[in-house]
Design a protein that fits this description.
Layout: H1 13-24, H2 31-49, H3 68-75, H4 79-92, E1 96-100, E2 103-104, E3 109-110, H5 120-124, E4 141-146, H6 148-155, H7 161-165, E5 168-171, E6 177-181, E7 186-187, H8 188-195, E8 202-207, E9 210-216, E10 224-225, H9 226-234, H10 239-246, E11 251-254
Length: 259
């Protein structure tokens, strides 16, 4: 049984997972991608609640969960179709979790990558053998325009347009920005969070009196890419192949044997 903060009653694990997969991955995705998401989400909740002993947040602070009423509002006339599709994905992977050295892994996941996932070491400084940088097939980018005044407000700086354009972006092995160097130094994560950018793979370009910022990917980049998993599934990868690709050196085991 899983205790979700804000919910009045505990929820059976597999029922909880339907609400997580529905919130975390588009229901239109390939069934095998949904299965991979179910396994990652199950692993995440098992590890982070110590097999249901602790509560979990229903937000991106942990993993997003939406109840049946919200799912009905989200899908409207497609509710029956999508509810069954996601329930089938959860059932197809019943009790399966990702293990490393016979323990549940930190099953991080994100929306999309920049062609490669981020390593745990680059992201947090903690090197984990199953959270290394691996290739990911999807391509996504976004460009936003920000005024110099907006940038200064968010960063608590007092820079000119030229100061922003002169910033040195120090990139790591996955081509994400590790450090931003200028009149003041930021980590790539700090810069992304302060400006609410989609990822830490970004460039700054002059756009008239403003600054155009183009990002590649969406999310922290660590672990499984959801859009990447969908592309792999569309190219006939199995759920086992997707999990082993994004979480190298792991195996898929059974939650019931790990209590």
């Amino acid at each position: 049984m899983i205790t979700v903060e804000g919910e009045t009653q505990s929820i059976p694990l597999e029922k909880y997972l339907v609400g997580v997969v529905a919130a975390e991955m588009p229901a239109s995705f390939h069934p095998v991608a949904l299965q991979a998401q179910a396994i990652a989400a199950r692993t995440y909740v098992i590890r982070n609640t110590d097999y249901g002993k602790k509560a979990i947040k229903p937000t991106t602070a942990h993993q997003v969960f939406i109840d049946e009423k919200v799912r009905q509002q989200k899908w409207l006339t497609a509710f029956d179709q999508y509810e069954q599709k996601i329930t089938d994905a959860v059932k197809a992977t019943a009790n399966q979790i990702i293990l490393y050295d016979e323990e549940p892994v930190s099953a991080m996941f994100h929306a999309s990558s920049n062609g490669a996932t981020e390593s745990a070491k680059n992201y947090s400084g903690h090197d984990l053998p199953y959270l290394q940088s691996v290739t990911s097939p999807e391509v996504s980018s976004e460009t936003i325009i920000m005024t110099v005044s907006e940038l200064n407000d968010k960063l608590q700086t007092n820079w000119t347009q030229d100061d922003f354009l002169a910033l040195q972006l120090e990139r790591n092995s996955s081509n994400r920005v590790q450090k931003v160097k200028g009149k003041q130094q930021f980590s790539g994560r700090e810069f992304r969070e302060l400006l609410q950018l989609r990822s830490t793979d970004f460039i700054l370009i002059k756009d008239g009196r403003d600054i155009a910022i183009t990002t590649k990917g969406y999310g922290h980049g660590v672990g499984m890419s959801q859009y990447g998993a969908n592309e792999l599934a569309q190219n006939r990868a199995t759920v086992e192949e997707i999990i082993s690709h994004y979480y190298p050196q792991t195996t898929i085991g059974n939650v019931c044997t790990k209590k």
